Amino acid sequence: MPADVHNLAEVERYVKEETTGSKRDADSDSEHDHLTHRKASAPPSPSVSPSDENHATSPLNGAALNAALTSAQNTSGLVLTAEQQQQILQYAQANGQQDLAASLANAMVSPISVPGNLSSTLLQSLQAANVITSLPGPPHLSNMDGQVNGDGDSEHQRKRANNSRALTDDERRQRRLLRNRMAAKECRKKKKNYVQGMEEKIARLEEENLRLRKEMEEANAKLALDSMQEGSESYRLMKEVEELNAKLGHPGLQFIHNVGQQLGELAQSQAAENRSSDANTAST
DNA sequence: TCCCAAGAGCGTCATGCACT
DNA sequence: AGTGCATGACGCTCTTGGGA
């Protein structure tokens, strides 16, 4: 089921079409025309802009959902109890996704797989109530091929099983294409999210890298200045290191000390320069 | 205003993998 | 072996921005 079906009247029509295999070709200028196969329809259909996709998440209309469920029952020959209908209604409204409602309706019409984003305790209760026949998740943990779960003596289950067996090759093909269409959308969404996440991570790490570099430079400058001041801990330690080096004949740390001294001198001259520059600016 | 290239989104097909 | 899912590849359409 396309994620951008805008309302539940569309769901109703969509479920009917997918069940009967019929195609819409009269309203090819409709904004929903991408539901039809572009290659099969002569006039080009408008693509879905990002703003159009936002319609898919609009709030559910309970009355429209009821209408869609009723229609789906009529189409499939299923008879749902009031409790089952209530469960679907609750679930769809809790999730606020029309495509989820559509998936439920579709699952009700025929025992094809249910999208992975339908997992919830309510979904399981739907399954327990024989409203749907398969649970989302790893594909082969559930019966995706129309076989019934559990005791199998339910009239609904038999109807669904018979319905599944009666599929023509063309109907099977249409269902496969539908599932693949949904899978492709899901896959692209997943990939896009992954790339977005990676880009955000890169930005965060670059920012942190910059901050740490700056922190390190500041600490080095502070240490260099500190080591120049007699009586400071740094100065005392540097002297101690110098004496030890002299005893050991080790030039490495002396070199570090010298660099520290040079850095300190540089910082002092820079500060003096800044002071004179400020003074000049103030005088002009 | 028209044209064109680039980019985004979509549907479909092919393929590999996992599961029964 | 059969089936379904995930995903890369391909071609198509549409949108958008820039140049003539």
Automatic annotation (TrEMBL):
Keyword Coiled coil applies: yes
Pfam families hit by this protein: bZIP_1
Keywords carried by this UniProt record: Coiled coil
SUPFAM superfamilies linked to this entry: Leucine zipper domain (SSF57959)
Any one GO MF annotation of this record: DNA-binding transcription factor activity, RNA polymerase II-specific
GO cellular component: nucleus; transcription regulator complex
Limits of the BZIP domain: 170-223
UniProt feature, compositional bias: Basic and acidic residues: 7-34
Coiled coil as UniProt keyword: yes
Protein name: BZIP domain-containing protein
Organism expressing this protein natively: Umbelopsis vinacea
